[in-house]
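This follows on from our talk about sequence and fold. Can you supply me with one protein entry, sequence and fold together? Could you add the entry underneath, on a fresh line?
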Amino acid sequence: MSITPHDERFMAAAIRLSRWHLGRTATNPSVGCLIVKDGIIVGRAVTALSGRPHAETQALAEAGVLARGATAYVTLEPCSHHGRTPPCSEALIAYGVARVVISVTDPDPRVSGRGIAMLREAGIEVDAGVLEAEGRQSLAAYLTRQTKNRPYVTLKLAVSADGMIGREGAGQVAITGPEARAQVQALRAETDAILVGIGTAIADDPLLTVRAPGLQSQSPIRIVLDPSLALPLTSKLVATAREVPVMVVASEEVWPLSSDAEGLPPSALPGISPTGGEIGKRRDPNSPVSDGDGFALRQDVGKGANPDPISPLVGEMPGRAEGGASPTDMDSRRAALEAAGVEVVHCNPYHPEVLLPALATRGISSLLVEGGAKTARLFLEAGLVDRIQLYQAPVVIGEGGIESPLDATDIPSGFAHTGTLMFGEDRLDEYERGL
């Protein structure tokens, strides 16, 4: 059966529905599903909060007997493997749907193509690739973690009319207006984690939470690149660590070697196999590692990525004496932070090509890099930014301004301009790298 405008209309609705729970479905993707009978939607659902139940089973349950002979529109190929719940493909078959229309084929090796094959073997007509570009955009975080073994990285920058992102020694400086700031709150709400450098954490003392009415419970994990554990115990991040998780990434190089852990610090991120890329250890980026689900992954550091160590970011390491902090100092700082509820992990903060896969093993599929010119430059130079959100405001910072690491005239190669929006007087330009 050929794809019709009605198919595209219903798939567009399913994609819009899938965005409702972005960033809130744990390690599972946020999928939208519509059950349509005689041109009428009789069931609809999005992947439930925390990832289960899946969209298909909820939509089928809503449709009930009306699902027999109906068409199911699903943004991602229905699963075909038994996990904590039976496969969605089996549910579609059991309810007697006549046709399934899919936007994106699942790259997960446990599913890829098998869900479609299962449906076809049961006599169900299947059409895939409907509004695929739009579907892939809505599933970008999940697809990146599956295919590149790292989170999808968004870099957000707010730049003044004179090309600055802040002012030295002034703490947080309002560059954009309230409309643009509200949009950023919405972006945080659909993101798994947000990251800043220690310089920004100290200078601005940010909360990095979602404060928009109705979205407060959707704050992302807050991550600080903090090589010498300099994050003040009096900071807003530490004060709220028991309410919204905070992770600080400290340098592993200053930690004393441990005979019972082959030199690894005791708090290295879990989920990395002992022989396949411990955090902070260099290895062949093409060598496979296991993600714990039984299939191989590789470290894809992105087009243009720099495989060599990235030099420490001058100005991002306050409080660290020449030659590094002593193990005793790090011990006490770590103990104090952990007592306040902060998670301390050891990994070279200037090796994002190692840190990002480690975050992926923790189920983090999307990462928002929001603070510090040097931190932004770190991810840009490593080739590990997938999307750039560049806000440009009419505000002038003037003397003492901190220069933006990029502007609209020097967007890195490989990015396509995907749209412009206005929020009050502020202009947002968005650029994306192909998945």
Q: What stands out?
A: The CA atoms of residues 115 and 162 lie 53 Å apart. The radius of gyration is 23 Å. The longest helix spans residues 5-18.
